[in-house]
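Supplementary Text 2. Reproducibility record for the structural model of the 113-residue chain.

All settings were left at their defaults, and a single model was retained for analysis rather than an ensemble. We include the record here because the model underlies the residue-level annotations in Supplementary Table 4.
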Amino acid sequence: MLLMRFNGGLPEPDIMDVPGLAESPTDVQVFFGVRRNIESSNVSWNWNVYKDRIPESFLPIACDSGGNLYCTKLASPDRGEIIYIELSRGLTRSYRVAATFTEFLDSLRSFES
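Retained model, structure tokens:
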């Protein structure tokens, strides 16, 4: 997984189509890491801040520029699935974006005007 290989970072390309999301596409602003210089780019910080708004079996792995989260499911039967969590505007809605982390990375694309 990206965390183990790169300890987070800025993806390129960074555009993600989120099926069912009215504001789609969105971006992947940053992948979270461990002990990163920017506190809000850490997995643990995001877990602590959002644990009351996301299911217990979800681990935040990234965010978009609007402060919404990408999470991976930690529990079976959908372990490893990537979910987009819309947190803006006081909402908490979830959208499936990929079955695996590899599929998630393969789905990232460049912005098209």
